[in-house]
Amino acid sequence: MTQRQGGETMQSLMQTGQISGSLSFSGVLSKEDEEMSRSALSNFRAKEEEIEKKKLEVKEKVQAQLGRIEQETRRLAVIRQELEALSDPMKKDVSVVRKKIDTVNKELKPLVQTCQKKEREYKEALEAFNEKNREKVQLITRLMELVGESEKLRLKKLEELSKSIETLQ
């Protein structure tokens, strides 16, 4: 105990009336004061012992808790090892499948590009085909118009010739 704590304890005892604090003129404690002093000292020691006992109890409880924590830590380590052992075969299978997926992805990439290129070429060819088809339809329509006009003209000419022949007769 520090000097300050000792002084505080004495002051506390004086305030509670356990030590009168009166010194005889000669500087020697009276028997009553000496008895109170011993009583206070014995109370102080008893409280110190009680504190030490409680301190030991708390220390034992902490040690018991630490022991349980160590046991639980060991149990958790065993459980973790069992989990890792369980996941190990799956890890290998998963790894193999992932590698296969990566390989297929690498093979797919140029195929996708080729497919997209062919798709663009197909669209361009289809567009060209449709354009030529529209042009063909327009030409056929124009041909039909021309043929129709030609037939009308020929019929008209034939009628004129026929009339001319009839007028000749």
Automatic annotation (TrEMBL):
This is RAB6-interacting golgin. It comes from Lithospermum erythrorhizon (Purple gromwell). Coiled coil: none annotated. It is found in: Cytoplasm; Golgi apparatus. Keywords: Coiled coil, Cytoplasm, Golgi apparatus. The keyword Coiled coil applies. GO terms for cellular component: Golgi apparatus. InterPro entries: GORAB (IPR007033). Belongs to the GORAB family. The keyword Cytoplasm applies.
